[in-house]
Specification:
Largest sheet: 8 strands, parallel, barrel
CATH superfamily: Glycosidases
CATH topology: TIM Barrel
GO cellular component, one term: cytosol
Protein name: Beta-glucosidase
Distance between the termini: 20 Å
Order of helices and strands: EEEHHHEHHEHHEHHEEHHHEEEHEHEEEH
Structural class: alpha/beta
Helix content: 25-40%
Family: Belongs to the glycosyl hydrolase 1 family.
CATH architecture: Alpha-Beta Barrel
Keywords: Carbohydrate metabolism, Cellulose degradation, Glycosidase, Hydrolase, Polysaccharide degradation
Enzyme class: hydrolase
CATH class: Alpha Beta
């Protein structure tokens, strides 16, 4: 794909990288992170309500109330998306709104998403829905959560409710967002809800999440047959600290197995990777895999969404730390390379996005891909009504260029969603980390598009990368 010349908003020419026609430019959020109104209209507690209300779990004692108050301010937020020229909005539905406590449908909860979808369509913005972005009803966690097989079947009921109501108007669906985080951060390290610290629980959760994906795909095919449906995973390229070290290479294999292949191999190849099953044999994952499960999990998907934030550099050197979030690889060491970092402490290397997409496409050829999340937290400051977030703008541009490089390398990449549209509740970091294109003053809920938002607006409208 060649470099072309286009006009920027100032009327001057700028060298640009042009994307394929119809490429989808959007921004993403998640229900618990932006909606607030956690007790409104029949919504019941999720595991994140319980987790964030537990002292010491979330920075600053923050919770998802009021978050960015999106539940009440949705029409204004959609109007702002339209003003910025976004082509798509990726949002998640709140399971505790749609089926409170995992039980019967809640019409009032579904009504909100009806209004959201209609508002987006009226604004010319494509709705892109995610069914599960980590807000499991607390009642289901009390019954075992994702370690219990029944949770996957309750998810299927929820998916059917959402697809019946919205499937005629939502053209793109993800079943799950980042099941690695749900399983290994929620049930392994305990830094995410529900806060368990068990390698056995993490692996049981991983399988049941994948089973839920397969059952959710059945519901989507039945009730949203014309939609493109798939799954969204967070993929991290994994490198050996010493490429000449067989031990470091094996450490990289283990982490790649748990982070990436444990989820994509069942979905796209219909089997778990044998080396990973061997690595985790002592944790009992195999006992949860029943006849027919992999056939359900591997039903064809239309795309895979990739969330990319960083890559891993690993070593077999044992520092003495034990991490239950990596069962079978607890003593692998994650190494810093001295690269620039975001406010989250994550190393920045945009080329990793190209490598991530190219490697995924090599392993699973013929698949369509979306970048469903990519973004960075920085310490933004609102000054005289503006936020000059130069670091984020540079991060965003470099990663968009990296996505373009993947397309040039032959990857069928169909869209890019920046994380996130709004500053929001950033899980265990509370409100301390700002990822948004739009600054949110949490005291007043005032919205202020940042410099990065204005740049992204030019990109989306031109379908080409502005050089400045």
């Amino acid at each position: 794909m060649s470099v072309q010349t286009a006009f920027d908003e100032g009327g001057t020419t700028a060298e640009t990288r042009r994307f394929p026609p119809g490429f989808l430019w959007g921004a993403a959020t998640a229900a618990y992170q932006v909606e607030g109104s956690t007790t409104a209209d029949g919504r019941t507690p999720s595991i994140w309500d319980t987790f964030s209300a537990t002292p010491g779990r979330v920075a600053g004692g923050d919770t998802g109330e009021p978050a960015a108050d999106h539940y009440r301010r949705m029409p204004q937020d959609v109007a702002l998306m339209r003003e910025l020229g976004l082509g798509a909005y990726r949002f998640s539905l709140s399971w505790p709104r749609v089926r409170p406590d995992g039980g019967p449908e809640n019409p009032a909860g579904l009504d909100f998403y009806d209004r959201l979808v209609d508002e987006l369509l009226a604004a010319g913005i494509t709705p892109v829905a995610t069914l599960y972005h980590w807000d499991l009803p607390q009642k289901l966690e009390d019954l075992g959560g994702w370690t219990a097989r029944g949770t996957a079947h309750r998810f299927a009921d929820y998916a059917e409710s959402a697809a019946r109501r919205l499937g005629d108007r939502v053209p793109v669906w993800s079943t799950l967002n980042e099941p690695w985080c749900s399983a290994f951060l929620g049930y392994g390290t305990g830094v995410h809800a529900p806060g368990r610290t068990s390698g056995r629980d993490a692996l049981a959760a991983a399988h049941h999440l994948l089973l839920a994906h397969g059952l959710g795909m059945q519901a989507l095919r039945a009730h949203a047959p014309s939609a493109a449906s798939g799954i969204t995973v967070n993929l991290y390229p994994v490198f050996a600290a010493d490429p000449e070290s067989a031990a470091d290479q094996d450490a990289a294999r283990r982490i790649d197995g748990l982070q990436n292949r444990l989820f994509l191999d069942p979905v796209l190849r219909g089997r778990y990777p044998e080396d990973v099953l061997a690595d985790v044999a002592e944790y009992g994952m195999a006992e949860h895999i029943q006849d027919g499960d992999l056939a359900v999990i591997s039903a064809p998907v239309d795309f895979v969404g990739v969330n990319f934030y960083r890559d891993w550099c690993v070593s077999a050197v044992d520092t003495g730390d034990f991490d239950p979030g990596w069962p079978g690889s607890e003593r692998v060491t994650f190494r810093s390379r001295g690269l620039p970092v975001t406010a989250s402490g994550w190393e920045v290397r945009a080329a990793g996005l190209t490598e991530c997409l190219v490697e995924a496409d090599r392993r699973y050829p013929g698949m369509a891909w979306y970048v469903n999340e990519n973004g960075a937290a920085y310490d933004d400051t609102l000054v005289d009504g503006t936020v000059d977030d130069a670091e984020r703008l540079a991060y965003l541009r470099d990663h968009v260029v990296a996505a373009h490089a993947a397309i040039e390398a032959g990857v069928d990449l169909r869209g890019y969603f920046y994380w996130s549209f709004l500053d929001n509740f950033e899980w265990a970091h509370g409100y301390a980390h700002r990822f948004g294109l739009v600054h949110v003053d949490y005291a007043t809920q005032a919205r202020t598009p940042k410099s990065s938002a204005r740049w992204y607006s030019r990109l989306a409208r031109a379908n080409a990368v502005p050089e400045r």
